[in-house]
Amino acid sequence: MGSVKLLVSAKDTDAVSGRRRGLRAADIAEKLRSDKEKGANNKVPESPVQRNVAELKRFTQQLQSVHPNVFAKALSKSILYQDQTLIAVNKPYGVPVYSTGGVRNSIAESLPVLSKIIDGEKGGSELHVCYNLEKDTTGVLLLARTEETAERIHNLIRLHQAETRYMVITVGLPVPSEGVIDIPIIEKEVMGSQRHFKMGLSPLYRPTEEGDGLVRVRAHRQAQSAVTRYKVLDSTSGCSLVELQPMTGVKHQLRVHTALALACPILGDHKYAQWNKLAPQKLPEGVLRRLGLEQSKTRHLPLHLHVRQITLPGGRGHGDLTVSCPLPKFFTAALKKLQIELPEKP
């Protein structure tokens, strides 16, 4: 039968009698502190991007754990513009516009409290969401004080009379550097180890059998028209800063058009970076090096998709209304690490 040896240091031996004494609680605490200090000294320093990602994760978790009233108060501090009919807020990352399963706080749920914070207890006005944004999209979100105003703005966007400009960081350089993507989008089932659904392209043209041209095909009845204007603002280190202007409003349109039409997925898009599976985005070595990340850590990268600016056409005797929103901290940190220049004007 094997034996077990108990290793005892000199500190565990009585100096006078030479007998072994029991390990005290104070000794255990000292040992734990010593090990913790050694671990901290040997820890690889985090890059600025890693720190910002960790900070963003903590902040997002806090927004979902606080009381709805506290969340509404935090949202009131992110107001970009307000008048008698309209309020614009800077939508935070990781917060849905409408409530979903397992989520405590959402923009829509906070509106009654937000209205009282802005107008006072006796204000009595209601706030209404003008359009939806994905949970992980940041930037300008318009809220109307009446249902009529909300519907009017929604229709302006739907009819392409309002101009919305997004900024994204893509992995890769779109070619050509400026253009219009006009490819319908349809929901598709992806077969594999993880059966799931994604939005995908449904082209209206295919190559001829001879390979010398294109031939038009019949449009799929479930496909939706999707048009996106894009322009590369700067590019280096294997990534690009791209301005996107959606001309239609199809689910995941910008993510699908960048990833599948331009072959340049948005940084942090773990859904569309790889078509046949759901897995953390795989980044080129050069991009990982610039960001100071390991491939195993890319799962924590947030989606770099931001509503930079929205312009509403003016009514009678009024000029256009333009609301701009600064980029979030994690976005600017990534630009800095990638050495991508941000234009002075949005």
From TrEMBL:
Key word Isomerase present: yes
Reactions it catalyzes: a uridine in tRNA = a pseudouridine in tRNA; a uridine in mRNA = a pseudouridine in mRNA; uridine in 5S rRNA = pseudouridine in 5S rRNA
Subcellular localization(s) per the UniProt record: Mitochondrion
Keywords: Isomerase, Mitochondrion, Transit peptide
PANTHER family: MITOCHONDRIAL RNA PSEUDOURIDINE SYNTHASE (PTHR21600), PSEUDOURIDYLATE SYNTHASE RPUSD4, MITOCHONDRIAL (PTHR21600:SF83)
Entry-linked Gene3D superfamilies: Pseudouridine synthase
Species: Clarias magur (Asian catfish)
Biological process (GO), any one: pseudouridine synthesis
GO cellular component, one term: mitochondrion
GO molecular function: pseudouridine synthase activity; RNA binding
Entry protein name: Pseudouridylate synthase RPUSD4, mitochondrial
Entry-linked Pfam families: PseudoU_synth_2
Main location: mitochondrion
